[in-house]
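Extended Data, panel c. Modelled sequence:
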Amino acid sequence: MARVTLIDGADTGKTKRERAGGWFVLLVLVVLAVLGGAGYAAAHQVAGDKVPLGTSVSGIDIGGLTRSEAISELREEFEARAAKPIHVKVAGGRSVDVRPDEIGVTIDYAGTVDAAGAEDSWRPDRQWDYFTGGDDVDALVHVDETLLSDQLADLTEGLGVPPKDGEVHFAKDGVSVVNPVAGEAVDPEAAQEAITAAFLEQDDEVELTVTTAEPDIDDADIQQALDDFANPAMSASVTLVFGESDVHLQPRQYATALSMVPEDGVLVPQVDERRITRLVKDATTSGKPVDARIELVDGKPKVIPAKPGVKFEPATVVAAFTDLLVAPEGEREGDVEATVREAAFSTADARALGIKKKVSEFVTYFPYAEYRNVNIGRAAELIDGTVLKPGEVFSLNDTVGERTAENGFTIGYIISNGVLVKDYGGGVSQMATTTFNAMFFAGLEDIEHKPHSFFIDRYPEGREATVAWPTVDLSFRNDTDYGVLIHADVQPGSYSAQGVVTVQMFSTKVWDIESETSGRYNYRAPATRHLQTPDCEPFTGYSGFDVDVARIFRVHGEDEVDHTEEFHTSYTAADSVVCGPPPKQDQP
């Protein structure tokens, strides 16, 4: 037992000695750590937010300065430099002294100092950089490009040729191109770099060179503009649909509303809202709708489209129109949101009438009299433009109205009870006869016509008509499947020339008409009248006779006679009129 105790005692002493050594090492490490931490804290205390030692900015030493001190130092130095002129000259051109502060040269002082390494941080690399990382750095410079551009413009005025951008233009006959042209100019970026470098390096002179200047809008930009917009826009019409009504806009109509303007180096399409809105308003109405009509344009019938009553927002119309401009052919039609009131007689209705060409024409002449010029001209004005739909009846009295001063007529000679008397509307029968013959050769159905009581030699015998308000009328029916447009025109007579009356009818040709007139027969001798009325007009009479006219119908383009219509006319003798009492008879 004693031996065992001794051994245990020896082991215990050894363990105690080992533990004492471990604590010593730990103590040494702790002391070293405290000493190192104190040194690191001292290093941070020295560095703070200062600029790394040995740092300079464009030759200005700011190493070891605090951030605020460095900013102040740079501001003082650079503001002094900015006020000193730099002599800028252009090779082959003029020169000028430019103060950096006059072209907007400024320094980002805070950004420059921060970029130079000024910061307050506990990071080890920050402490290392402060003591070892100093370097020469460039100041962060900003130049006002507008002010610099103005100065360069003055410097280079008359020097070289400025570049010319390509252009795309729209006209009624299509798209045209102005090709881009390279020029010669001072490169603004190179000029800015040279002046900035001189400012930073305190050089007092800069020389700029003229180089090739490429236009912003070059050939590639032009081709892209043509492919993406211009050519598609002018390739075909655009149709805007308002309810049941279409507004067709042809390229020649909207060309002046299109343009392409440069923007960020490319050509951007623009649409003139005012012009497009005006085109749509011309084709519509903001109030009551307007029916389609048919008018003569350059001697040919043309459908004038109906105008629906439409209320719309211009921006909505322009947006729809612009989208359709680049659509392929066959897809250039689109609905437009709007409030629409449709016309009673649509454009489609007008086209369906088939009024395409002249189917008949007749001309008569009249001796000069001012009342004839007035009355026949007024009747023509009221008849002109009349459209007869299939089955409709034309009435001259209904169309022309009562011959009164209020209706535009004047007093002239008419035939009443076989003699000439004065009344309003004298001469209108000339228009009746001319219209009757135009109807005759158009192959329309005769409803009512009355020849003059006695023959008037300026009219075709058996093919003439007279009218009197309201009892004697000229009327006929459009018994074809097509509409008929009547055009009436008068060239007034003068002392040296006869007046001319022309009536034309336009439709789709149905019949080829031939007229055959018999010889005169059943002659009747005139009598003599003695009148003692104040308005008596003397007249030399002539014989009356009978005559027959045949209207021969052939289907248009064929030789075979389809049917014939007979007109019989019996003219009374035109009595001679003597103004005064009859002669006394001899007494037996």
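The CA atoms of residues 195 and 497 lie 89 Å apart. This feature is highlighted in the accompanying rendering.
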